[in-house]
Amino acid sequence: MKRLLNINEAAEYVSLSPNVIRDLIAKRQFPYKNVSRGEKAIFRFDVNELDKWVEELPGMNTEELHD
Fold first, then answer.
1. Are 16 and 29 within 8 A, CB to CB?
2. For position 18, what pLDDT does the model report?
């Protein structure tokens, strides 16, 4: 698996919709990297950071994501 995911891949990886992820980003509650070079934001998501984020959720772990 590649290390940086786009929003659709990240959404599938953590079992959320892209819209929920966008909302969490707006609230600064979801890990992302802004890789844009112009005015439009381009978000990428590091798999290791996503795993850490999931592990910090109450009652969740990364093993549950991949079952």
1. no
2. 96
Which residues have CB under 8 Å from 21's CB, separation 6+? 7, 10, 11, 14, 30
User: How far is Cα 63 from Cα 35, in angstroms, rounded to an integer?
Assistant: 28
- Identify whether the C-beta of residue 34 lies closer than 8 Å to the C-beta of residue 43: yes
Query: Is residue 67 predicted with pLDDT exceeding 50?
Result: no
State which residues form the domain around 19: 4-65
Distance of CA 26 to the CA centre of its chain: 13
Answer whether 45's CB lies under 8 Å from 7's CB.
yes
Look at residues 54, 62, 4 and name the one whose alpha carbon lies nearest to residue 33: 4
